[in-house]
Design brief:
Elements lengths: L2 H23 L8 E11 L2 E15 L2 E7 L1 H35 L9 H5 L2
Antiparallel strand pairs: 1-2, 2-3
Amino acid sequence: MSEDKKDRKLMQLRKKMNALKEKFVGTGLLLQGNISERTITREDGSKKKNYGPYYQWTFKKDGKTVTVNLSATQVEEFQKAIDNNRETENMMEEMRKLSLEILDLSTQGVIKRKGNNELKNP
C-alpha cells in the first residue's frame, strides 16, 4: 500500500473512531440484564384469576442471577438503560476493530525472517 493511500485510510479510520467516541460519551445510564413481564394465574374455585402484570429485572452479579421486582413506572427507564448498555457494547466492539486496523497501519511490526526455503534457493 502506498504511503499516500495508507495516510488516507488512517484518516478515515480515525474519523470513524472519533465519531464513535463522541457517540459513546453521549450515552446515558447503563444497566445489564433483561426485563420480563409476568402474570400469575390462580384458580379461585371454578374460575381463574389473573394477577399482574409484574415486572422483573434479572442480571448477573458475581456469577449468580439476581432478580429485582420493578414497578410499572420504573420499567421504561430501566429498559432505556439496558438498551443503552447494548448499544455501548456494540460501539465498543466496533472501536476495538478500528483500533486494531489503526494500529496495524500506524505501527511497524516485527520484521519476518526469511524461511528456510528462501535461504537455500538464492
